[in-house]
């Protein structure tokens, strides 16, 4: 989607919101606009918010049909041996991918994380390599993953900024994550050689109960990381991501996240252009077709935090009168520019809908014959 981040938003980083945590960031999800930041690039231990990237890779595998929600995962000795937060999976136990996602999203289960890593990549190490590759692709320059669950180890680090980047990727590309991250309590059934038994999951993210607009996403806490959260919420079509790192206790973690979300909702208004100008067909010179149709690359979005009158946004379409073949589908044909108070606030590309090759002598000859026999 086009990133129409508010160029004035960086100045809001000093906005009057009092936080106790040493590192934090507030981002609007649809545009990627940073509304507030506090030492957002400090390199810190992430604890279980690591699992946001684990979930991205799980949903990537679902998206490419490498796995399905109904696939059955067998728990290894290594996965079952994980300490920290867990759902006490036993070696040889089987659970569906769907249940594993619930265990990770709701109960922050380390054992379920490792079981899924092994199921997708063959080993946790191979999965972690994929995590780091995916992080690099998102521009997460402050991040290095060493495991898939967030247990404290050397060099397993990230930043509030990078956590916001991967949180945005998860909730915008795979919004179905909210079907899991908003579960407050649910039971799963352990299936082992000893038989079946019920186990209760309770969401580690207390904002699901405490904050009216909460939609997720992930908590984390270890001795080195202290208390962290990537909190997502939606109100009036505004989707916010509040990242809190290294809070001194769990109450501060949630209080700071709530304060950031309240601040964001109080100043943010989102403009989305659902009625852009109609696009003409462009004349093509020297091609096998004389006209080519056009389309917009996506929907333009702009986040305002300064109280501007968004009805004053103006649009200007820039297109050539004629183009020369060849024409390639998906290439840029022109641009739709948006201005507010005579200042450009963003743009969206106009693309060619089809490919039109350059006409050959044979094409011209064929057209001449067609014209002749039509007389």
List the main descriptive attributes of the protein structure presented here:
single chain; 375 residues; alpha+beta; Beta-lactamase; Peptidoglycan synthesis regulatory factor (PBP3), Domain 2; 2 domains; 18 strands; 28% strand; globular; disordered N terminus; serine-type D-Ala-D-Ala carboxypeptidase activity; signal; protease; EC 3.4.16.4; hydrolase
Quickly describe the structure:
This protein has 375 residues and is α+β, with helices and mostly antiparallel strands. The protein is built from 10 helices and 18 strands. Its EC number is 3.4.16.4.
Q: Can you walk through the features of this model?
A:
- By secondary structure, the protein is α+β, with helices and mostly antiparallel strands.
- The chain folds into two domains: 9-267, 3-Layer(aba) Sandwich (Beta-lactamase); 282-362, Sandwich (Peptidoglycan synthesis regulatory factor (PBP3), Domain 2), CATH 2.60.410.
- 29% of the residues lie in helices and 28% in strands.
- The protein has ten helices and 18 strands.
- The strands form six sheets. The protein has a five-stranded antiparallel sheet with strand order 2-1-9-8-7, sandwiched between helices. A four-stranded antiparallel sheet has the order 13-18-17-15, with no helix packed on it.
- A hairpin with a 5-residue loop joins β1 and β2 (34-38).
- α1 packs parallel to α4 and α1 (51-63) packs parallel to α6.
- The longest helix is centred in the last third of the chain and has 18 residues, at 250-267.
- The protein starts with 22 loop residues before the first strand and ends with a helix.
- Mean pLDDT is 93; it is low at 1-15.
